[in-house]
Amino acid sequence: MADVTINRCTLRVVRRGGWSWGPEPRRLLQCVINALPALLARELAALFPDDAEREVSAPVRINVRMSIGELLALAGEGFGEEAIQSAPALKAIGERIARAARSAVDLDEIVDPAPAESPSFEARAVAEDDEPGSESGQGFSPRGAVLQTLMSWQAAGVLELRLAAFSNAALEAWHRRAISGVEPFDSQSTSREAIDNLVDQVSRPYLSSLRDRQQVLRLRLIALAEAMTKLRIRAITPMLLAAMNRALPEVLDGEVETERGDLGNGRAIESASASSDRQSDSHGLGSLGPLSRVRVNRGRRRVTDCRVASALPFLLLGPLSRIGYLKTLAATMEAADCRDDLPLFASALAYKVLEPPARGWLRNPAMSMTASAFAALGEPVEEPGLAAFARRISPHLSPLDCVISGALIAGHDPRQPILLHRAGGGADEGLLLVDVEGCFPISWSSSPDGLRQSLIQLDSSAVLIPQAAAGTGLLSWMGAEGFRFIAEGAPTRGERWRVLRHAERRWSSNDEMTPEAALVRMARAMQPTDEDAETLWRSLAVERPSIPLADDVTLDRHITLAASVALGTIAWELWRHREQTAPHLALERFHDLDARVSYSRDSVRVSLPLGRRFEDLRDHGLLDNVFDAPWLDGRALIFSV
Questions:
Q1: pLDDT in the model for residue 53
Q2: Cα torsion for 88, 80, 40, 103, to the nearest 10°?
Q3: pLDDT tens by residue, 440-463
Q4: What is the spatial distance between Cα 121 and Cα 11, in angstroms, rounded to a whole number?
Q5: 352 near 540, Cβ under 8 Å?
Q6: CB-based contacts of 513, cutoff 8 Å, min separation 6
């Protein structure tokens, strides 16, 4: 075995998924500090022949995903060669490090060293809780994404809230997909009576409030996710589905019901599958005409190496992955029977942050090539195919919308106000709810009613309403709903609101309790935030349409929000300590950051030019590897120089 000298090793443990540090946090951290560098050195040494001298001059980042259980299992273990061979936990983690090291170190690019030099590595360990339904350390599987996403939301305590925001089409599709993967036989040892009791226990508190099919489907998904979590199973079993059908019967007009009782026979499974197929056609997910579906090559791209005009689309993925957006995207596309269209979604997302098309529709060839490289396609997608995809997926975007709004609401400082900005014009005019800190767009709606749920969750924050947004009846609606607001201008006849005066400006508010100085301080943020929101909407929604030929702008509007959140995260992380940030700042400052993209069997490597922008992104964790971009077919997205 070769001797490897690690000159600098940076160890970073990131806690995700809600797990705690255990009863002895310091012991856990000390255990990681003691164990992982030793395992790392051992596995790296195995990469090099005994008689070879090599130098790795660039940092090598190795991401190792581990559950809290694995980290705790390391406590008390020795870290010598005998301990590594005998302890199952150490051996399994060592094998995982070896796989990551082989992927991170390209031996073909290692050059002969100077005589007295030794390999230099930077290691990063990332500890995460196990995703429900996935193998420890193997990340998120795009297959079965609907069930995995439901169970992760249930574990995070947000499942009921997320399902409440689903459109009817999305709810039907997710329910259909969730119950379609019934195993032919029961494999768990839990008795039928225990499963019945568990399902009854979960569903009993909700039964009295069920009034329509949508509420029944939501409750069935809640019961399903909780039961699977408690039973520690990854797929629906016949006994579990039978218990759900008894406790929460699903009534489908004009359809043949799935056989009750023992669903372990093939006839029942075929009946359920046929019913699912008929329902898929009834919702427009089956045959959709000659232009409705564009077939993309789902095979892995061969090893390629190309230069792209902008790396900005790739930079969006880290922030989107952090909020669970990419996993929800995989589930949404799976539920809508659009998994083959994932590269189309990726292309539309890339176009949103690339150079605007000339005359509103003509794509620059360099931008088209960048979008196809981002989407893992050999050739750009034709615009008619993108337009057809936009029509097909538009009814199913509500799960993605609620992930964006949920993440921003959870991160909002209740002491800070939010702003209502009137965005768009004509038939596409609507209200954009914006977080004043960072100008993050939370949600969009054509009417105030569509923002009610978001405003309820943000109830402790005052709403800033510029004069342009205060349409007919908006302020009366806000007051009737009990939401606090600060509006631009003085109250009109019949409006008994509090008048706020400061210099030459005047505002009015229905808040009678908060001190005037505090309300004035919040009101001062109204004009600059409204101007930032206008610039953001013009830059992304108006000047950069993802699909110029689409007659349905729902997808384009959603991608505008998704790209804005990612860009806003980049701007917030980099510049919030020195200036007021907004998403369009990141667009302006990184749109011309070019890169070289290399596809291999296991990874997509994005090589950025070394400079100040690269260093800032790296130092703020914005170049961490991304493992769950669903159109990359399991490849890891790796940033390097």
A1: 65
A2: -50
A3: 999 999 999 999 999 999 988 999
A4: 11
A5: yes
A6: none
